[in-house]
Amino acid sequence: MRTIQHWINGASTRGGSERTGPVWNPATGEQQAEVVLAATEDVDAAVRAAATAFESWSQTSLSRRTKILFAFRELINDRIDELAEIISDEHGKVLSDAAGEAQRGLEVVEFACGIPHLLKGEYSDQVSTNVDAFSYREPLGVCAGITPFNFPIMVPMWMYPVAIACGNTFLLKPSERDPSVSERVAELWAEAGLPDGVFNVVHGDKVAVDALLDHPDVAAVSFVGSTPIAKYIHQRASEHGKRVQALGGAKNHAIVLPDADLDFASDHLVAAAFGSAGERCMAISATVAVGSAGDALNEILYDKGSAVRVGPGRDPASEMGPVVTKQAQERILGYIDSGEQQGAKITVDGRGLVVDGYENGFFVGPTVIDHVTTDMDVYRDEIFGPVLSVLRSDTVDEAIDLINANPYGNGTAIFTNSGEAARRFHRGVNIGMIGINVPVPVPMAFYSFGGWKDSLFGDTHVHGPEGVSFYTRGKVITSRWPHVDHTSGASYDMPTAE
Question: In this structure, which topology does domain 2-248+455-477 adopt according to CATH?
Fold first, then answer.
């Protein structure tokens, strides 16, 4: 049985813990590896390595940092296929989706390659007589990332390229469900010339998480996961004086107006709901059909949802793979049962799907549930599976009110040919990321990713300009160089400009 180890101070290590967890192949249902689960002492060793490395890395020139980032960028780009295979084998998503995930993460690396421009400060000459003022931003220290299973390379890449480019050192605690790609990334960082201790990986569960949140030498924590855990991360890390950004769950809506091209809209809704088996924080899980769009849209969703090809992620013919674990499969099936019991109509039923040759895999077929109401569990909860709920509303304004009443505020979309309706929608919804005829509006790396309401705890979103702000702090200097024979003119009054 292959054992996946930590990466601390430039080397693979088991550490002092004897605990391990299983890593499954979701397509076959078989255990393919075990991952070492860190003890508190292992986390401390990684933090100490990162703290020591920070002393020199924070003083490394911007030129040197960017050379390493460019080298890392080339290594990732050259190995996208290899990384996609690692992800597919442990997560279950199809290879093309895994490669797309790696590509979107690579875009953040490319953004971070421009860090010299992004870290430029400000200068004001002669703010007072013979006095100048200027500012710049400094790194924080040891930064930690706690990341989810659904994007094992992309979400960590939202964090560590920017943090490292800004002069911080980084400790990643990836999901223990699909940890191997993080170990491979650590090797590529070393190959790119990153000094030992600047990037570290510690695998684990709540023991490792709490050790990071409590450690006095961790300056900042970034998190992506469910809302209950995001709240916990934000509160506990804040209590220990850390800077925190904690991205929580989602219930992303797409509204479809009668004037929309229903063939176009349905293609994108099916892809957005069932891509990556619905295990995306930006997946469309609720569609609001406005007015006369409802029945016609549901008929097309039936045809296209039923036609999705489900199979193992390594099969090029597969459009959707399995979900990540047996427990996830059982939970999702339970929600489908609940929707039916509470009065919704299952129009495309993914229960009981068996893939030939992969009978023990963790598969759930695409599922469309019509006539869903806001009081049903299938609507209120984040299912995180290939389940699309269809609700009805009479007007655009009613649909906006429905979305705003939901506690989540991550992403949303509108399908329409009306510019007026689209403008009213994007100005009216209380959501952080909005698509107009774009169902999964994940921003490019030079913007920032993040939601509102129960989808974000903290002040800043990840990557982009807000990522640079999160991983640095400002310093302002007021400077005067008097002549050696010049009297100081010191005053006990509040200094004012003259």
Answer: Aldehyde Dehydrogenase; Chain A, domain 1 (3.40.605)
